[in-house]
Amino acid sequence: MSPTDPTAPTVALVQPSGRPIGPLAHRPMGYQPSLDGVRAVSVIAVLLYHGGFSWMHGGFFGVEVFFVVSGFLITSLLLDEREKTGGVSLGQFWLRRARRLLPALVLVLVATGVYATLWGDAQLQSDLRRDFPWAIFYAANWGQIVGGAQYFGNLSPLRHLWSLAVEEQWYLLWPLLFLGLTTVFRRARVRAGLLLTLAVGVMVLTWWMARDPQLTDDRVNFLYLSTLTRSSGLLLGAGAAFVWRPWRNRRSGEIRAWWLLDVIAVAAVGVLGWQFVDSFLTDRSIYRWQLATVSVAALALVLVVVHPASRLARPVFAFRPVAEIGKRSYGLYLWSWPVSVACEAYTGSWSRFGVAMGITVVASELSYRLVETPIRRGALGRWFAARNLGPSGHWHVITTSGAITVIALLAPLTVFFSRVDHVDPAAGGAEAVFVLPVAPSSVDAAAASTETVAPAADASAVAESSVASSETTIATTAGALATAAATTTVPAPPVTAPVLPRRMVVVGDSMAHSLAINLPDGIESTFAIEDGSVEGCSVYDTGDVRSQRSSFSRSFANCEGWSDRWVDAAVDSQSNLALVVIGAWDVFDVDVDGRRIAFASPEGDARFLAGLQQGIDALVANGVHVALLEVACMRPADVKGAGVPALPERGDDSRVAHLNDLLRQVAAEQSETVSFVPGPVQWCTDEAIATDLGYRWDGVHVYKPGANLVYMTIAQSLLDIPL
């Protein structure tokens, strides 16, 4: 992400090989404005991706272009220094990098930390509890991997620092490897060949790690964030720098086939543009071939724009307004995401995006002019020198003073966030107390097994008693339980009473997760509940969600092994009952292998039923009875902190009803091992409850009061299942 470091070496007597050089062989690369132009296009793609615009949902690939540019540029500068001085000063190299990168990072960390401390909510502060310390040490990518923070759907204001961490780790290690490589191997082509082979090896490793059936959420996180799997672009750029130095050739600008260079550049731009607009972060293809394709296309573009013979690509990318954006790309990238989080400018709204980018441009420009540029040009050193601090103490004074300043700014914030409690955005709501409804007599229960149960008149009153304050509790009666079971056949009770607490695993998607973690007080004496959910997956491991809200996309490629995870949770918790809670991801059209499958079409129903049956078979094979919870009518709302916007398909009750018909069908056909469990009718019949964010924090996922309403509604039905 770092802009070019201008250098001005003018003389060299020998090549790295020790042989005499030609008249222009010592010419350094110098400043290449066209590289800044490439950076400009890349950072714009990233900013639009962060803005949530559906037509740029592959803009994250702009980061890979940055990696290729950095690999090529830094290696070229190291080669220039080696030719000029006969060696490389590691201390000076790392000092230049620190001057370029640290000041802006410290500003962003301080600004973000102060904002979160004074105005941030509990979720924002919780995110910084995890990310702040890692960001200080340029290890944000590993912090997210170790902490299990999925990059996709993560709204931490520091999530984007993963890429800077990858680059900084490259800057730390690459000069050492460069010295070893240039010492052991004297021929530039051998060095380049080794690096290019290593880059291809990383691509193959990434391809192998993304193979079937291993692509889980954690695997996707590692593939996208780790220094190892993201090093191929850096290695490609570095390897090419050893052999592609056209500015050293007197006649390089006069080659007859100049047009071929520009044809290659146009093709590379086309490939990058295609990937920017047609890629999804969680697609398996990202790691199988798209990442490698972007790296190669970016390398081709870089090689052309630095060639003096290019008559189209080089001047276009060197166009001054474009190059000026590229010079500021580091600051724009640093400031844009924290500002976007503060302004909630990540949902595809042009108005919010415009406000966020306005703030970003002002902040990054002030940082660039008043802090970054003066420090990079040695302003601190001149300031100390003007105060007659002798040369012997100059370096030590500057270093010590800078370190003290950084520590004084960041240490208090780090301490503050370390004391913040971890917050799960799905957990919360007013306190609620579970009361097991009084079980009907065996005679009444037997009658209920063959008769339709009528709704109780006071159901809404019972449900409405829970949201007023943090000390509100939900009470229920047998009448409220009867309400939930309206128009649904209740299974006959077992001959003997169940042993309590009944061990139950809750499996499914994020709706299952919310239900499993928001347990009301007192439920532990009736149910021992384990969370076996796989968020964002339902019963699929292929396909891409297509919503009427076009700014949103979701791939199921990272859901491989979801049924195994259901079973593992059931076995580990020794549960013989599994409550399946799905529906949030099942009401959409999907694209599978390039084909659109419409919701409620025969093909769509077959796909849903096949996936559901896979999960049922896996659980039943391990001695687990499956209870299918009725899909609730959803009232999705755009809520700050939600990783998913309000999607209109979720609010379509007819789609929900169709899913429930399919669930009833499955339970009726496999009644020995599968039961259909009716949920609260209030989700569909009482808008005051259905739309109350105290029950469901985003209109889809329950908080404690909503979970209590569900558990009290379904408790007796679950206990009546003979196990």
Note down, in words, how this protein is organized.
With 723 residues, the chain is mainly alpha-helical. Helix content is 54%, strand content 6%. It has a five-stranded parallel β-sheet, sandwiched between helices. Strand 1, helix 21 and strand 2 form a beta-alpha-beta unit. It starts with 32 loop residues before the first helix and ends with a helix. The relative contact order is 0.10.
Reading side by side through the largest sheet, how are the strands ordered?
Answer: 2-1-5-8-9
Mean pLDDT: 83
Q: How widely separated are the two ends? A: 59 Å
Radius of gyration: 30 Å
> Quick one: biggest sheet?
5 strands, parallel
The coarse silhouette is: elongated
Portion in beta strands: 5-15%
DSSP, total strands: 9
* Helical stretch tally: 27
Regions with pLDDT < 50 over 5+ consecutive residues? Answer: 1-24, 440-490
Number of domains: 2
Q: What is the helix fraction of residues, given as a range?
A: 40-55%
Supply the helix-strand structural class: mainly alpha
